[in-house]
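User: Thanks for the earlier help. One more: C-type lectin domain-containing protein. Can you show the sequence and predicted structure together?

Assistant: Of course, both are below.
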Amino acid sequence: MAQTNSWLMLLSCLMFGSLSQGQETQTELPKAWISCPEGTNACRSYCHYFNEDRDSWVDLYHQNMHSGNLVSVLTQAEGAFVASLIRESGTDDFNVWIGLHDPKKISLHNGFLVSYKSWDIRAPSSVSPGYCASLISSSEFKKWKDMPCEAKFSFVCKFKN
């Protein structure tokens, strides 16, 4: 059953990736059969990994610099894929780190500008701003909320294999 769900996530990501929001510039064709290490899931030409270990955004950024990045959610389809990856894990976490930081500048830690946005209601906060973004469980991990970068949450990594 879990393998069937993984195949469905991959298929939906490949089919709908370029259709979402019309905002993604495609520079290469998606690879239907990329090889990812065991325990990771493929979406388009990247491998994704949900890790329930908790750490701060800054510590994760420095740890992942050589082995991948915190996930940059660039399209609605990728957001749906990442959300299903987290939900399928059965986690009881309320927040999961993604690669977005300093929401006022709307940039990702790996240098991409954000054109796709999925902020929760009243986010990013101007009253009590956090400078790092997390996916929140109240939206089934589809919406973002800014949080203090020192908070310790689980996370999703994205890397090319």
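User: Great, one quick takeaway?

Assistant: Residues 1-27 have pLDDT under 50 and may be disordered.
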